[in-house]
Design brief:
The protein is α/β, with parallel strands linked by helices and 343 residues long. The protein has nine helices and seven strands, in the order βαβαβαββααββαααα.
């Protein structure tokens, strides 16, 4: 007969694993596949866990083609109690317990989100009740009342609660998969199981869930410390990034100020260039006027030198103009004639 152990918390998948002893639906599916239709005996000592993971395991057991006996050897609480009821037969060891209660969840969001989550929890409760009713003679309403009270059911009184069980007479093993704080309302006998440290594992390889709760706590504390260290490192990294961003922003502000100063200086230079251009144009005009005057004087000098003009004789302007060699010279003589006649 194939033996399968569920001696730890039920989780949805490997991504949710904290401890080696935790059980996923894939673990059970793999074990059932290996059993290949042969009779299977499942040993349970678990405080439950993920609703989705527990329902997946329960349905896998329920659909297994061979016979499945679920032996509660310590505590089958919450979703573990659902799994215990999924087999063809349910056996409970002396001093063992079932614990049934309503599913619960953490949720955040708007009012509508909370209402939707409540509906989901109600639907999950009905699914769980359907599993209980395969091993319990109580009706759905009676089971709801027991779940509302978070009821602990000892093996010796299981029949009084309507659970059809067999007595498991094998050696009792309890793994510290539950913590004392998990269920404050548990009977003292159930709490005692939480402190019991198994001397012999059910399987050849000791599962991680056989560790004491102190070891599990230390393991969780170690993971928390590692996460805190990683968060602190990331915070320091973010602080350094923030400082670099602030320094870069300061450099950009200074560069922008320099660009603005350069732009202002460029505008001043452009205005100065425009003013210089105007001054240059004025100077060019003045130079042209001076050049024209110099040309007139030079033409007059040339005529005096050539004997065309006689200071003591009346000026024969027509003869002078006629004797000019170029149009420019003639124009210069006419200008001189106008000036002379205007005196």
């Amino acid at each position: 007969m194939k033996q399968i152990n569920i001696l730890g918390d039920i989780i949805q998948g490997e991504d949710y694993r904290w401890f080696d002893g935790e059980v996923t639906p894939q673990n059970i599916l793999d074990a059932l596949k290996e059993a290949n239709g042969e009779p299977v005996e499942i040993f349970i000592n678990s405080n439950g866990g993920s609703i989705a993971g527990g329902l997946a395991i329960a349905n896998a057991i329920k659909s297994y083609p061979g016979e499945v006996v679920c032996n509660v050897i310590g505590v089958a609480a919450s979703m573990a109690s659902v799994i215990a009821c999924a087999g063809a037969r349910l056996a409970m060891g002396t001093g063992s317990f079932l614990m049934i209660h309503n599913p619960w969840a953490r949720v955040s969001g708007e009012a509508e989100d909370l209402r939707k989550q409540a509906d989901v929890l109600d639907a999950m409760r009905e699914s769980i009740i359907n599993f209980y009713r395969t091993k319990c003679s109580k009706n759905a309403e009676e089971l709801r009342a027991l779940m509302d009270e978070s009821t602990w059911i000892a093996a010796e009184s299981a029949a009084d609660f309507g659970f059809a069980i067999e007595t498991y007479a094998g050696e009792m093993h309890a793994a510290a998969a539950l913590t004392r704080d998990a269920f404050d309302s548990a009977p003292e006998a159930a709490k005692a199981l939480l402190d019991f440290r198994a001397q012999k594992p059910v399987s050849a390889q000791k599962p991680a869930s056989d560790q004491s709760w102190e070891a599990r706590f230390k393991g969780a504390s170690k993971k928390i410390n590692e996460l805190q260290t990683a968060i602190a490192a990331k915070s320091e990294e973010m602080k350094n990034v923030q400082e670099r961003l602030e320094a870069t922003a300061k450099d950009l502000a200074e560069a922008l100020a320099n660009v603005n100063n350069l732009s202002a200086k460029l505008e001043e230079s452009e205005k100065a260039l425009q003013d210089a251009t105007k001054d240059l144009a004025t100077t060019r005009d003045n130079l042209k006027a001076a050049q024209d005057k110099a040309n007139e004087l030079e033409a007059a000098r040339d005529m005096l030198t050539a004997g065309v003009l006689s200071p003591s004789a009346p000026m024969d302007w027509d003869a002078k103009i006629k004797a000019a060699k170029s149009a420019e010279e003639r124009e210069a003589i006419r200008s001189e004639k106008r000036k002379a006649l205007s005196k």
